[in-house]
Automatic annotation (TrEMBL):
The keyword Nucleotide-binding applies. Transmembrane segments: none annotated. This is ATP/GTP-binding protein. Residues 20-33 have a biased composition (Pro residues). Pfam families: ATP_bind_1. One of its GO terms (molecular function) is hydrolase activity.
Length: 233
């Protein structure tokens, strides 16, 4: 008689007629290397988060909205309002007389640089009367592009000061406007009193590839200078 430790005695006939136990299911085998289901071993340390917040800043009319619109892979959000006579005494249109609208809150766009770097772009408003928004916009920002307008280079000082004071890494992108003086990047560095490590590059805010090159330069700059990304976020 088969051994059974249950309290009910088991008769010989019951044992004889009992169905054979179902064969035990084979134990799951680990997936073969390279097949679906295997978690690939991390090849490099996870130093950067997936989503990076980047500001696109600069003086009034420097090309911030144009830059965000050119590089964004989604329809950019913009908050443009017409410039009217009401702002005539407040807005300095010297050098940007052709401007008909202005950003009153922010621009927003997104670009995937590579599988590990998705940038969320926030364009700042350029006019002084909206600068109070910059502090809100820079919350959680990891880096910034300061667009320098070659027609009014001095308008970039405030943006440079803003990011220097907050310890936010930035690059200066010299947006070359038609007919304006062509600066050498080192001239711009000297004029703005920039640290030797801050990249200064030439760009055209209207051209996507130029904007993307600027953003790649920014990410590379941040990777080499930001030691603790977690602390910056
Ligand atoms: N020629 C030329 N024009 C540009 C360039 N970038 C921007 N513009 C033009 O300059 C004008 C102003 O650009 P915006 O992108 O509105 O500038 P902004 O910095 O967002 O302006 P605010 O938000 O008002 O401070 C637009 O008509 C653009 O087409 C450039 O690189 N070259
Ligand atoms: Mg704008």
């Amino acid at each position: 008689m088969a051994y059974d430790d249950s309290s009910e005695p088991v008769s010989a006939s019951a044992v004889d007629t009992a169905p054979a136990p179902a064969p035990r299911a084979p134990a799951p085998r680990p997936p073969e290397p390279g097949t679906a289901g295997e978690r690939p071993a991390p090849t490099e340390p996870e130093v950067f988060p997936q989503a990076l917040k980047v500001l696109v800043a600069g003086g009034f009319g420097a090309g911030k909205t144009t830059f965000v619109g050119a590089v964004s892979e989604i329809a950019p959000l913009s908050t443009e309002e017409l410039l009217t006579q009401v702002g005539a005494g407040l807005d300095d249109l010297t050098g940007v007389e052709a401007k008909t609208s202005t950003t009153v809150a922010m621009d927003f766009g997104r670009i995937t640089l590579d599988p590990r770097h998705v940038l969320y772009l926030f364009g700042t408003p350029g006019q002084e009367r909206f600068w109070f928004l910059w502090d809100e916009l820079c919350e959680g920002a990891l880096g910034a592009v300061v667009l320098a307008d070659t027609r009014r280079l001095e308008q970039s000082f405030s943006a440079v000061d803003f990011f220097e004071q907050r310890g936010i890494g930035f690059v200066v992108a010299v947006n070359e406007f038609d007919g304006s003086y062509r600066y050498d990047p080192e001239e711009v560095r000297a004029a703005l009193g920039l640290d030797g490590r801050v990249p200064v590059i030439l760009c055209d805010a209207r051209i996507a590839s130029s904007g993307i090159r600027t953003l790649v330069t920014l990410v590379q700059h941040l990777l080499t200078t930001v030691t603790s990304v977690g602390a910056a976020l």
